């Protein structure tokens, strides 16, 4: 059914209309549509649909993934990228059972490790050279070009052990061969984070960019932080990837104050982080706002920026003929205690409160996921 959206404050768009028209096919229309349902957004902000560049939604295919709906529209997110839950051995299942039937738009970073995250960290996907099958990986990429948006490698000691930087180098080579970006998880060594930085090129993504792990953080040395800033200026994309172990308030606050703003805000949502301390995208956005990222930058980092990686509309999303893809939300005063991944606390005085999403002509309610016991 066609829609007319009214009484909203546009943000993150190139244009600032007072009304938005959506036709029966779910596309933005230039003029009112006969018989359209009028939807009063009650003064809420309206942005391009929120996009989470780092989630784990291969539910049933890994031991940590959540259902796509738990990461998606019920909490205000209309598009997402699964960040390496599946390698070549199980990608067909992720596609058939998660990506294709989902209401949300889902893309995926293919794990360079064949088994992906089937038993996350208990059975590392990058034990040695037998963990990677380049021929099969290339075949899966070619068969799924429409949904694979990049290659994922977890370059940290708990995964690669003494293999060090080698898996990341192999993943980078496969990314180069297939003309795809590399998303690299950084954390505890080996390899050292500067070893990872040395192999990256514009369009590649550093996820967990504001982690607080000793010897795995961009704040470890002055030179390393400057290298991170230089990389960002050259077009390497810094992604939050909060997760259960990879976001630190001080690292984020100091880095933003010193001129390094993240490209994208993502949750790294999985079964453990969803329960605590991440909860959802709205809470993650509010944390970034609280540590000094300006409101407009927060919106860009959850809309235009990550959506561009997935090949989706962003600030141009009100162009007639494009599929409607919006999130309506409020920013309200609050007093909410939250944690980073190291258990440090902060009280948020403003909170993002999603109200609804629009995908095509389908409108659905949305709300922040409340912490257990509230």
Overview of the molecule:
The protein has helices at 68-71, 91-99, 134-143, 157-160, 166-178, 193-197, 222-233, 249-257, 271-275, 281-290, 295-302, 304-309; strands at residues 3-10, 19-22, 28-29, 37-48, 50-55, 77-83, 105-111, 148-155, 182-186, 205-207, 237-239, 325-339, 345-359, 362-365. It contains twelve helices and 14 strands. A hairpin with a 5-residue loop joins strand 12 and strand 13 (345-359). The protein is of the alpha/beta class and 374 residues long. The radius of gyration is 20 Å and the shape is globular. The protein folds into two domains: 3-47 and 317-345 and 353-365, Urease, subunit C, domain 1, CATH 2.30.40.10; 50-309, Alpha-Beta Barrel (TIM Barrel). 25% of the residues lie in helices and 26% in strands. The strands form two sheets. A seven-stranded mixed beta sheet has the order 3-2-1-4-12-13-14, with helices on one face. The chain has a seven-stranded parallel beta sheet with strand order 5-6-7-8-9-10-11.
């Amino acid at each position: 059914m066609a829609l007319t959206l009214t009484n909203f404050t546009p943000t993150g768009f190139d244009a600032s209309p007072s009304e938005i028209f959506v036709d029966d096919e779910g596309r933005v229309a230039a003029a009112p549509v006969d018989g359209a349902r009028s939807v009063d957004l009650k003064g809420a902000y309206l942005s391009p649909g929120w996009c989470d560049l780092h989630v784990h939604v291969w539910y049933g295919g890994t031991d940590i993934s959540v259902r796509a709906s738990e990461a998606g529209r019920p909490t205000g997110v209309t598009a997402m990228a699964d960040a390496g839950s599946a390698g070549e051995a199980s990608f067909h299942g992720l596609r058939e059972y998660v990506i294709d039937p989902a209401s949300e738009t889902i893309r995926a970073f293919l794990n360079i490790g064949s088994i992906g995250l089937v038993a996350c960290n208990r059975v590392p996907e990058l034990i040695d050279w037998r963990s990677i099958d380049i021929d099969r990986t290339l075949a899966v990429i070619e068969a799924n070009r429409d949904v694979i948006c990049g290659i994922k490698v977890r370059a940290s000691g708990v995964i690669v052990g003494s293999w060090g930087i080698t898996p990341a180098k192999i993943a980078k080579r496969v990314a180069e061969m297939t003309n795809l970006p590399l998303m690299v998880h950084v954390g505890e060594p080996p390899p050292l984070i500067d070893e990872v930085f040395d192999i990256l090129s514009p369009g590649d993504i550093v996820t967990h960019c504001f982690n607080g792990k000793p010897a795995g953080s961009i704040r470890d040395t002055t030179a390393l932080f400057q290298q991170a800033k230089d990389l960002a200026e050259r077009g390497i994309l810094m992604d939050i990837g909060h997760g259960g172990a990879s976001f630190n308030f001080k690292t984020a606050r100091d880095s933003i104050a010193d001129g390094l703003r993240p490209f994208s805000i993502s949750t790294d949502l999985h079964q453990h982080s969803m329960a605590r301390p991440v909860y959802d995208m709205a809470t993650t956005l509010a944390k970034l706002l609280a540590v000094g990222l300006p409101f407009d930058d927060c919106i860009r980092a959850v809309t235009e920026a990550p959506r561009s990686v997935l090949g989706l509309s962003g600030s141009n999303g009100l162009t007639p003929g494009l599929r409607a893809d919006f999130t309506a939300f409020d920013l309200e005063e609050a007093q909410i205690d939250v944690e980073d991944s190291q258990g440090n606390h902060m009280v948020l005085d403003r909170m993002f409160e999603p109200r609804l999403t629009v995908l095509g002509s389908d409108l659905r309610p949305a709300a922040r996921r409340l912490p257990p016991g509230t």
